Amino acid sequence: MKALHQSRATLPALLAIVAVLLAGCAVGTATPTPIAPDTPVLVVNDQAVPARELRIFLLSERSNVVSGTTSQLPKDANAAIFAAAEADATAAAVQFQLASEAGLIADPTYSTFVTSLAAENQRRRDAMAQNDPIYGPQQFSESNYLDYVLGDIRYKLPQLLAESGQIDATQHTIDDYYAAHQDEFVGHDGSQLAVDSEQVRLAYLDDRYEELVASLSKAASVSSAGDGKRMLDSGCALEGSC
Fold first, then answer.
1. 182 DSSP assignment
2. Cα(65)–Cα(80) distance, rounded to whole angstroms?
3. Which of 17, 140, 199, 206 makes the best surface tag, with the fewest CB within 10 Å?
């Protein structure tokens, strides 16, 4: 009888322990709270990079990694994808900042970019309603519009930077560039192409612009903000679920 009494006495304690263990498991397997699109996850030169922007670069870099391998992905693939996307976001922020300083755009923040996207898509809807011609897609996705805007900046900004002296575009410098890169101006048969000075100048400016962005990106102040570390630690970059 004494043994039975002890067994009954310990039963509530055992049940309490099981309850605690189950509660711990539930906490460990709970689905993480989603990160809101406009939540800052990085800061580049005091400019916030929201989750929605970083997600665009994460998906792009994940696609590059997944399509570039036929074997099992390495264990550090998630960190590698995240690091590459962070570098992309840094370069984008640097270009927006440069464009703003040069007067090409009014404001370098991503929130202004999102507002511009909404306005552009509304303009396209209005044009279609009036049967007016539009060029390009009927509606831009956020990622496609980001590509479009950055491409437009890359096309226009080097000339402005040359005019301001941030890129050395003296004729002597361009002549030296052509002399060092003549092999890039050849036809499919290896013959020297007839190129005009403007063609060489644009190629030179594009190369110098790329170098400038790379240099400024390397020197940029970049830090994790808000839920940036949680996004990295979740493994969502590799899963494509950020």
1. G
2. 9
3. 17
Q: Say whether pLDDT at 13 is over 60.
A: no
Q: The tokens of 86 are what?
A: 């962070």
> Long-range contact list for 163-172, CB < 8 A, 24+ apart?
164/102, 166/212, 167/205, 167/208, 167/209, 167/212, 168/208, 169/201, 169/204, 169/205, 169/208
Tokens, residue 74: 């390495």
Residue 195 has which token pair? Answer: 């190129």
Give 66-121 as a DSSP string. Answer: HHT-SSPPPTTHHHHHHHHHHHHHHHHHHHHHHHHHTTSSS---HHHHHHHHHHHH
Tens-place pLDDT, residues 174-219: 999 999 998 887 665 555 556 778 889 999 999 999 999 999 999 9
Residue 131 Rama label (left phi>0; alpha psi -120 to 50; beta): left
As a whole number of angstroms, the distance between CA 207 and CA 215 comes to 12
Evaluate if pTM is beyond 0.85.
Answer: no
